[in-house]
Amino acid sequence: MQKGVMRPGHVQIRVLDMETAVAHYRDRLGLIHTHTDSQGRNYFKGWTEIDAFSVVLREADEPGMDFMALKVLDAATLAARKQDLIDYGCQVETIPAGELDGCGERVRFDSPTGHWFELFAEKEQTGKWGVGDRNPDAWPEDLKGMKATRFDHCLLYGDDIDGTVDLLSSVLGFQLAEQVRDEEADLRVAAFLTVSMKAHDVAFVRHEEKGKFHHASFYLSSWEDVLRAADLISMHDIALDIGPTRHGLTHGQTIYFFDPSGNRNEVFSGGDYTYPDHPVVTWDASQLGKAIFYHDRQLNERFLGVVT
Amino acid sequence: MAEGHRITLAPEGLAFSCGEEENLLQALQRVGVAPALLAAIPVGCRGGGCGVCRIHVRAGEYRTGRMSRKHISEADETAGTVLACRVFPESDLEIEVDPSAANPITRSPTIAKQQRG
């Protein structure tokens, strides 16, 4: 958090059909549906999140990700990082407070991989859903589906991942926690970045096309909960991608599936931690099968190639 | 299983059955006896979003669910180029794998590298 960037704040995802999307994120992932705004966008949060929302769905002609936002410490940090981003050469736009309900001013900027990110300093805090912060009970009883606890990270696909890693590291203080390298080609194939103790707050995989969305990920408390998510995927005939399994990269326990518009979701538990003095963990591209699917150790074309 | 419509893949002539309430890709996966078909039409997101199951319908009546405009333009849709996961047959169909398909699965440099091996 050396540059005052604290954590992921929200992601805005495009969906082809709002009604089925709301049902998926609310009833299957088990996010709390907080409200619908005047533009018809729908807002959600994981029950442990203190913010008013962390996922926004917007109906559009193409699925994918509009932007991912990061929360900074305060207004002064927001102003300072905005100037840093301009000096770095980013295209920077200021989105006025209230454009997303309950969120303060946002600084939106582009990246070498073609993804749009945002910084913000203020968002309404409605507290952990169903438990509050005064003598809180362990969990609320009225949760649905997979009971996703929080929006955790995004994995994004794009061409110049070294450029985006440099931007996020040098301007926003991200730390490279893990990477995949193809030594033969002297090429970084994947990068996992963090501003916290997590193994990743955002990750990138090298891909020919800019601005692609691989998945948004949500945290569960245990491997048992990942298996329970797998049961729900079968019970409701949700399009499974892969899992339940464990990743070599980050060592998280995971399952992947698709929302009704073809955007990939992950729910996972566990995973490694990162302190600022930790060396970068590197997986060799020759071990990519094991790096991605620790048990099968086989690459899966759909997992690698299908994006929105 | 109710009687479905006969879906024929040109030019090989491989055929499978698909009901009106299921999409072509679901039927293809259910059949499971036609690996050549599955190889020809990859299974991606199954939600009209990723574009890998792009096909061309040469003949027959069908309805579609919403598909990503990035992969299927209005002109494509009018010309019968669609995503198999969003096509619900209303008669027997003759389909072909879209000859112009730029399949995103094969565009990943990571996969290309692995395939070169």
Automatic annotation (TrEMBL), chain A:
Residue ranges occupied by any VOC domain in the UniProt entry: 7-122, 150-270
InterPro entries, per the entry: Catechol_2-3_dOase (IPR017624), Glyas_Bleomycin-R_OHBP_Dase (IPR029068), Glyas_Fos-R_dOase_dom (IPR004360), VOC_core (IPR037523), Xdiol_ring_cleave_dOase_1/2 (IPR000486), XylE-like_N (IPR054560)
Catalytic reaction equation(s): catechol + O2 = (2Z,4E)-2-hydroxy-6-oxohexa-2,4-dienoate + H(+)
Cofactor requirement: Fe(2+)
Leader sequence segment: none
Taxonomy, superkingdom: Bacteria
Keywords for the protein's UniProt record, in alphabetical order: Aromatic hydrocarbons catabolism, Dioxygenase, Iron, Metal-binding, Oxidoreductase, Repeat
Top EC class, one word: oxidoreductase
Molecular function GO labels: catechol 2,3-dioxygenase activity; ferrous iron binding
Pfam families: Diox-like_N, Glyoxalase
Gene3D superfamilies associated with the record: 2,3-Dihydroxybiphenyl 1,2-Dioxygenase, domain 1 (3.10.180.10)
EC number: 1.13.11.2
NCBIfam families recorded: catechol_2_3
Subunit structure: Homotetramer.
Family according to the record: Belongs to the extradiol ring-cleavage dioxygenase family.
Protein name: Metapyrocatechase
Source organism of this protein record: Pseudohaliea rubra DSM 19751
Lineage: Bacteria, Pseudomonadati, Pseudomonadota, Gammaproteobacteria, Cellvibrionales
